[in-house]
Amino acid sequence: MDFQHRAGGKTGSGGVASSSESNRDRRERLRQLALETIDINKDPYFMKNHLGSYECKLCLTLHNNEGSYLAHTQGKKHQTNLARRAAKEAKEAPAQPAPEKVKVEVKKFVKIGRPGYKVTKQRDPEVGQQSLLFQIDYPEIAEGIGPRHRFMSAYEQRIEPPDRRWQYLLFAAEPYETIAFKVPSREIDKAETRFWTHWNRETKQFFLQFHFKMEKALVAPPGQAVSVGVKRPPSLITGLHPSADSMPPPPPGGIHGMPPGGPMPPQMPPQMPPPGALPPHLRPPLPSDM
Length: 290
Description:
Blueprint: H1 19-37, E1 46-48, E2 54-56, E3 61-63, H2 66-73, H3 76-92, E4 116-123, E5 130-137, E6 148-153, E7 166-172, E8 179-184, E9 188-189, E10 195-200, E11 205-212
Antiparallel strand pairs: 1-2, 2-3, 4-5, 5-11, 6-7, 7-8, 9-11, 10-11
């Protein structure tokens, strides 16, 4: 027989499968898959009748073997009837009460205004560390409520344009309004002795103190101690430093607060530039001005 000009034919093959053969092969593959994944004995719609055949109680169909029934369960008709049955049961089922959620009662207070406050700037005399002490008065604070505080970034607030050089310290206590203080955006020292809060229940006052971290450590030259926090005034005239030798001589009438004829401390001869080179407020008074 000549297989050369048959459509789709090839020598040694059976030719192109028909549609019935393809469907039969598909059902067999579905049956094998269903046998591996489905336990037919737990299917509520599977029933074996007295004739030895199998029935689907949901779709009212007959099947000659288990494979045919399993292939039927994967078909469109059986799946559609399953969806309809589930929707009907859900509609007829009594409404189940939803699990009760834990409700947190939000306490509502009538705002009575802003609290009084006092801010004190401080500097540690030993290390020169700067600090701020806040005292907030809450004389009418609600019973069982404690003051709270937190730091807020400049990008969290919506009152002023954001500026990374500043941050905000907020204080809140019902029924008072929340107040905020604008402080420099520097790193806060969280050490135990550098950051503390205290709530005085008797006086109804809340205290908070925090220190800023030192930005640069002062380095003392060899053999000399550094005096932190003390700044020497700059010289008024270049090359002229304030000392006892450079002070102008006392006026002829004596020093203010001392009798003119009283004993005067010995004066060294002044070494000063001519009077015309000094500013008016540093020139010694003349006898005609007394």
